Amino acid sequence: MTSRLGGSVLCNGVRRLRAVARVLAVVTLGGWFGAPSAAASVGGAPVTGPAQIGPAQIGPAQIGPAQINVLGDPGLCWQAGGNGSPITLERCDPAIQGQQWSLTGNGVMMNGNGYCLEAGTGVPVGVPLYIDFAGQCGGSHGQVWQYRGGTGQLSSTGICAGVGGPISPGAEIVQRACPVWAGREPGRASRWSIGYSAVTVAAGTGSGPAGGQFGASVTVANAASAQTAYGVAVMFALPPYLAAADLHVAGGGPGWSCDVRTLTCTGTLMSGASGRIGIAGRLPAGARPGDSYTVVAQASVAGTSQRPGTTRTTASVTVAVHPAAPGTAGAAGQPSRFPSAAGLPLVAVGVLLLGGGLLIVIARRTRATPAKR
């Protein structure tokens, strides 16, 4: 009984498919020859936006000792003196102990002179922050701080640390209202970098067979002596006639994502971390063995100040065109892997589920044989 039912289903399926075979072929060909998907995928899901900002940094890991500087102006750092002294912006000098700060595992911001950062309670916005040794800096109210590396925001008891005036030497660090997000980042006067990143990019190799696909790579790294680099972006620039179809990261840590539309990969690099970024696509139709193309990659950091003097943030990769292997598409005398639609022997392969049975249909397109006379 089952065999007869299956045979009936298959026969009915064949009759029904005769009416849609051409439509199936057109749809399948559209998938083969249409424009490629614009978004690269990460873990199987399309990228829809930049990497998400992580939680505030109040975990067991200590940050520092390091200089706290204005994000985007790494030459001005926090400096404090003794017990009860305010914090001011001064020219950065790593030899000054009062410019060294550490965010401890319990969230206390310790100064290199042995005092902790205090946020006054019940005082209005605009009052200067100060350091003291109240409660032996044990983490009482007003001594616990949260640093959000993705935005540079340093907050405690509902207030944020900010500059009380123009960003210049001598400006005091005061209590400011924390910005309401609403899709916006805090202003420059409230964005801080605890320490410096030292992100560099190094060229890898690149090559591809004539008439085929090319592949190239670079390595992005943050120095072991640096602080965590937030908001790292590596952007590629391709020469004319070279198009990318894939962009991906191996290593670098969690949270990295790539978008082939903008030829950019973004993420966070911990101290001493590195990742390999690969880019692939199709060589121009006219590429010949011996030709070469230059792919440029540039690294930037938006959420941490780069260490002054950091070099090697741009790398150039040479993509060398070599002969296609014999017997492969693109080799001399071999058909291309992407023939024209008019010469396709295989037009479409369709899979349908009919009545619980799997039916595979192959529609072929053949050339008409001239009639003999």
Description:
This protein has 373 residues and is mainly beta. It folds into three domains: 55 residues, no CATH class; 132 residues, Trefoil (Acidic Fibroblast Growth Factor, subunit A); 126 residues, Immunoglobulin-like (Sandwich), CATH 2.60.40. Helix content is 9%, strand content 40%. The chain has one helix and 26 strands. The strands form seven sheets. Strands 19-22-17-16-24-23-18-21-20 form a nine-stranded mixed sheet, with no helix packed on it. Strands 6-5-4-15 form a four-stranded antiparallel sheet, with no helix packed on it. Strands 11-12-13-14 form a four-stranded antiparallel sheet, with no helix packed on it. The protein starts with a helix and ends in a 9-residue tail after the last strand.
